[in-house]
Design a protein that fits this description.
Oligomer: single chain
């Protein structure tokens, strides 16, 4: 992964982003049902953002999901390393480069980049891509905060976001990341 410093959540930010995604839940469900973005491309987008944000839980989960959708192992490794320089099929390169820009900008892409995404894929597909990027960003930062709390529980840890923020996000996300962490441990990761 290309992450230098893992971004984490303060609890208030986690609640804000969770509510923002909750409001968009009908759109997310519709995007998944209409499948204008293939499941394989969706997983590639998830891996691309995860490579930047460095969530080990999301990397483990989406690596398996991508393999299940028949994304070749070398492409999975390439995306997790942050490399989008090799040819990717189906006109996906623009979307993957945008996803990387999205993650590096903290979910605040340049307006010109959003306009290019819409021009390349059309409004509906671009909207679906943006929804998936919001979803994985929420998952990545929540997973990083979940992991930060576990690190703190193992020994003294200084730094942001802080014990209370980590604890509250941990409690809110343990139903999701607890089983993933357990499965990772069983798999030896």
């Amino acid at each position: 992964m290309i992450v230098r410093e893992r971004r984490t959540y303060r609890f208030v930010e986690f609640v804000r982003d969770s509510l923002a995604l909750l409001v968009r839940l009908p759109l997310l469900v519709r995007a998944r049902l209409r499948r204008r973005v293939s499941h394989a491309f969706e997983e590639k987008l998830m891996l691309t953002v995860t490579a930047v944000n460095g969530c080990r839980y999301c990397a483990w989960f989406h690596e398996r999901e991508a393999a299940r959708t028949r994304v070749p192992p070398e492409e999975i490794r390439s995306l997790l390393s942050g490399a989008i320089d090799r040819p990717v099929g189906g006109g996906e390169a623009s979307g993957l480069l945008f996803a990387q820009h999205w993650a590096r900008s903290g979910g605040r892409p340049e307006p010109e980049a959003v306009a290019r995404l819409r021009q390349t894929y059309g409004g509906d597909v671009a909207g679906d891509i943006l929804l998936f990027l919001r979803l994985i960003t929420l998952g990545n930062l929540a997973g990083n905060t979940f992991g930060a709390f576990l690190e703190r529980a193992r020994g003294p840890r200084a730094g942001a976001p802080g014990l209370w923020d980590e604890l509250l996000v941990f409690l809110a996300t343990v139903p999701l990341f607890g089983p993933i962490g357990w499965a990772m441990r069983r798999a030896g990761r």
